[in-house]
């Protein structure tokens, strides 16, 4: 199998030698009213980061709509809720602050993309602002917005992501307990792992 190695080779196989004018002009350097409105309604974001040595990672963050706070036209704050404590994204940010964010709104095929520079803070005032039922996030990712723009709907239209009739039946896929049992050769029944996960979810969402 042969691979493309230059920008010229890449551009040659597409219909136009350069991005369209509109796709370039839509990229903003600050959050406008539409971007802020999107963020206020978004309950889910994917964060892309890198460890500085070429190893990339994408992690999901989700909460109630608007959980990512707009601090000003150039700054976002993402609370870090309880998770598995791998801290992949946070450790990556310490090594390389560049991040790419993809915000989703359920049922909406368009997405909001934000690229920027991230830092981590434990500022008490900000953590308190982002608390849920009195539970403060352990830390907050503060992102300086360098670029933001709306992304078109084609990927979501092709995938029919928001159409329930296109979804596979959940029973067609194994539970996480079964997957972990097989991958980690766990001795206990998969049901016990699933019950433990359900209990952990119930007790440590925030």
Automatic annotation (TrEMBL):
Q: Which SUPFAM superfamilies match?
A: FMN-binding split barrel
Sequence ranges assigned to domain Pyridoxamine 5'-phosphate oxidase N-terminal in this UniProt record: 32-149
Tell me which InterPro entries the record gives: Pyridox_Oxase_FMN-dep, Pyridox_Oxase_N, Split_barrel_FMN-bd
Q: By what name is this protein known?
A: Pyridoxamine 5'-phosphate oxidase
